Amino acid sequence: MRGNDDVPHPNLQYHFGPVAADFENGRMKMSQAFSIHIDQLRPRFRGEVLLRSANPSDKPALHFNYLSTPHDEREIIEGVRKCREVIAQRAFDEFRGEEILPGADVRTDSEILAAVCGMSETDYHPCGTCRMSGDEDAVVDGEMRVRGAEGLRFVDASVMPNIIRANLNGPTQMIAARAADFVLGRPQLPPFRAKFSFT
């Protein structure tokens, strides 16, 4: 969905859940409600992965830096407003109750942003931490070989040079298939047009 009329492409994705779920003391708690999660498809914030120490057993330090740009702040506010607009449609009349989060009293841009900042989290699709490219600053080359290391490749969504406007599963499978070709020395398969039908 487009958050405004000026973007040339859909920039938001919504996930509708027929229940509301929360975690309390490590356990999932269900509520009689529906939930909608808002994803930014091309956020501009950039996170980082850092080493905590020289000990390889230490977990890395992950800093996502959510909503750290004015563009992302504006886009998520538009996302909440657009979501409310959809839920206000007549088709939801028999299902819609009181808005639980962020709450009907959260109206201004600053109130929406403050509420969203308190509940934002990853949607399990981080990517791009080991960018693939032909330039020397990239972590891996065009065959996913780690620069400066012998016999090591990264073969996952971390090699994507840019965030895609969709879920990462399909493209990651294609990356893995292509990497297998590189490892085995096989040529790339010729393109083909897959047949499909929506009927």
Describe this structure as you would to a colleague.
The protein folds into two domains: 106 residues, no CATH class; 64 residues, no CATH class. The protein is globular, with a radius of gyration of 21 Å. The protein has a two-stranded antiparallel ribbon. With 199 residues, it is an alpha+beta fold. The mean pLDDT is 91. It contains three helices and six strands, in the order ββββββααα.
Offer a concise description of the structure.
This protein is of the alpha+beta class and 199 residues long.
Side-by-side strand order of the widest sheet = 1-4
Distance between the termini: 23 Å
What overall geometry do the principal axes of the alpha carbons give?
globular
Could you tell me the radius of gyration in angstroms? 21 Å
Q: How would a crystallographer describe the biggest sheet?
A: 2 strands, antiparallel
Number of strands: 6
* Helical run tally: 3
Structural class: alpha+beta
Q: Approximately how much beta-strand content do the residues carry? A: 5-15%
Number of domains: 2
Written as H for each helix and E for each strand, in order along the chain, the element string is EEEEEEHHH
Q: Are there runs of 5+ residues with pLDDT below 50, and where?
A: none
How helix-rich are the residues, as a percent range?
Answer: 10-25%
Mean pLDDT: 91
